[in-house]
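Bench log, entry 3. Co-assembly request; chain sequences pasted below exactly as received.
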Amino acid sequence: MEWAKDNIRANAIAPGLILTPLAKTVSDFHRWNPYVTGTSVLGLKYKDGIILAADMGGSYGSTLRYKSVERLKPIGKHTILGASGEISDFQEILRYLDELIIYDLMWDDGNSLGPKEVHSYLNRVMYNRRNKFNPLWNSLVVGGVKNGQKYLGMVGMIGTHYEDNHVATGFGNHLARPIMRAEWHEDMSFEDAVKLLEKCLLVLLYRDRSAINKFQIAKITKDGVTISEPYALKTFWGFSAFQNPSKGAEGSW
Amino acid sequence: MAKVMADAPQKGGFSFDLCRRNEMLVKKGIQLPGFRKTGTTIVGLIFLDGVILGADTRATEGPIVADKNCEKIHYMAPNIYCCGAGTAADTEAVTDMVSSQLQLHRYSTGRESRVVTALTLLKSHLFSYQGYVSAALVLGGVDVTGPHLHTVYPHGSTDTLPFATMGSGSLAAMAVFESKYKEGLTREEGIQLVCEAICSGIFNDLGSGSNVDVCVITKGKTEYLRNHQLPNPRTYISKRGYSFAKGHTEVLSTKIIPLKVVEVAEADAMEE
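Structure output for the full assembly:
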């Protein structure tokens, strides 16, 4: 049972992952570590379509290496894709989708791939890679509008996928989803949707160490895709308790 | 354990005697026993007149809910209360212990207890046990120097904050606080915000659930609002009720076996 011993060593590399006899050695798992990563992506449905938000940071471990990474991209005419996790894997996924879209366009039959199809394709890709012990280390948010129908879904790196009115990846699941669950409602206007997203982005900025204050918002309606210019949110640090926190309680801060 | 001289006082704190042996065992492949984290959402905030503490009421044992309506807001002094997350036994024991120490201190000084006293007693106890006493606390109270709110971590570090959350549901509750907290809240606004934060933990975190407990501490007055909100009522209650009168169950057959009377000889009392 050599692979049982490998399990203990593999646990040191990537805690919680279990090896089976299919993987012969621990060195098969050089692909288990992400290097340059993006943090949460948020998405929600509103009256006219879908709106996604993400910051523009690419962290290299605990260093903030890249500050202008575009993690929201349009796919074809009907979809936008947002990714968190390994940036190089995201770029690879964009190449696969490029090939897919071009192949579809070459048919020239008036039909085009919609968000449901893109979501299904990505789900298959992610699941199959995971089965070969070579996952694409991403959590993807797929949103779009086709024939008046809005669609918003998520695919994880092990192939978990679902569809909902509001989604988030990574830390967004813990910090943003509770706010979205309390405040999202059907047919929000664009301004309300942006306000809700900005509320969530601000909490993430305060409480996620890999978040930076430079965001992009992407919206897709039946008229097409718009990805905003990068912008920053206003933060508030003026609590009186922050002025002299250890007054009366030496040793705390 | 190291041998202790009969007349030397027992020093408290974590004993490092077995650490080398434990390390050797881990290297050989033995798995150390894990610690059960009881899921919780506990919060505290400072408002205009004092401090408001809040907690959910679910105690978990792994995937099972052990207690649907436990009390996580512990009494420390008439003007100081403490919410506890982590291992339930640890939080109970440590708050009980410091509460007794505070009372003795009050008798000795003849004054109302101060929050920093409770804070220092808690942090020095937890530090001396190097994080093995798994108690994460939100300590709040009002004393002569004003309202105070602190968080205490299992390793013994503390923070002084205007609003704080701890436990597995802390992220859900913190999301609510970060987006809605402002200084100078009134009593009603403060209670409303605390309830919202706890409900966020209850509905978005699997380790938290059931009801909302709130404790409002102001100068000279403390209100412990046990089960202030019950957002998880029982949805289906059988209208027929649960009484089963005689005749409800059909008797198919009856067999009566008389028990033989057994003679018990009186034995002599045990000789020591």
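Helices of chain B lie at 19-27, 88-109, 115-128, 170-180, 187-204. The radius of gyration of chain B is 25 Å.
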